[in-house]
Amino acid sequence: MLDPALESEGLGPSAFSEALAADWAERAPQVADQLRGARVLVAGAAGTIGAACVRQLLALAPSRLELVDVDENGLARLARDIRSRGAGAGVAIGFNTLDFAAWPGLALAEAAGPFDLVLDFAAVKHVRSEKNLYTLLHMLDVNVVRQRRFAEHLCGRGLARRLFAVSTDKAADPVSFMGASKRLMEAAVFDAAQGRAHASAARFANVAWSSGSLLESYRQRFAAGQALAAPRDTRRYFISARDGARICLLAQLACAAGRVAAPIFEPDAGALDLAEIAARFLAARGRRAVFVERMEDADALLARGGEGYPVLLTARDTAGEKEIEVFRGPGDAPEPLGLKSLEGLRPAPIEATVLRRALAELAAMVAGERAASVADIEALIGAALPAFQHAAAAASLDDRV
Question: Which residue among 99, 100, 238, 312 is the one 20 to 30 A from 8 at the CA level?
Answer without folding.
Answer: 312
